[in-house]
Amino acid sequence: MGRWGEPLQRTPAPAHRHEAFKHLGAGASLAALVDAVDRHDPTVRAAAKALPGL
Which of 19, 27, 37, 54 has its CA 20 to 30 A from that of 43? Predict the structure, then answer.
């Protein structure tokens, strides 16, 4: 649980983030994260929906 105590201070520096998230700040909203994934790989939503049980 200690790891989650101060999540904004433990967010990786932009240089260590996935390319899709380098432009986002530590307090990015879920909507901003989803938008970043959609921009990085426009096919990811369709691929996720095609998974069994979803």
Answer: 27
